[in-house]
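Bench notes, afternoon.
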Amino acid sequence: MEPLHWGVIDTPIGHLGLASDGRVLVAILFEEEIATAPARLARRGAIDLREPDELVRRASAQLDGYFAGDITAFHLPLEPGGTPGQRAVWDAVKAIPSGSVRTYRVIARALGRDRAARAVGAANARNPLPIVIPCHRVIGADGTLRGYAGGVERKLWLLTHEGAPVAQRLPSAEAARALAEPQRIGVPSTGIYCRPSCRYTPRLRRPPLAFADAAAAQSAGFRPCRVCLP
């Protein structure tokens, strides 16, 4: 058991609480979690919370820069804890660039566990360092934002702030065919994206996604159709 250094900053998505053990950043808490910070951080071995240290001040400055739009990546020593499986997911999530998204399935596939999309979601739900470990960049295969420990509204805010390609869900294949270039159609069941004019579009049985262009579809983890060559 050891003391942790603790500070709170004001951001566009509410206050954030930051905790450091003097060597690494160990936790970021959303505003509604701050009141219970002592109990939450006791699980990480904290016996009490002390004044901010240099690392908390560094993290605060970088988060200020992120919210101001001045930086897109963080350079901080982190120790999220967790199991080996969780840490593997968090490492994969840290590799997602700002302005991009990946699906839970794509992350699972990158880890060599094609059927582990739910495990990826569970690991993200336990991420102790949100924003810095950007689990908000992981979305559902159907293009929806799904859950987020800080709330879906915050997730949407963060993705919009980063300029990420948040896809629009279309009601039907007919709506997909009505899209104009350079928009692209993403098919969640296959992970493939097509031109609106692709000959396979009328055969879609489930609502597809609309992306602004091919780059947005690729950023979300979709691969190009071999028929329409989008």
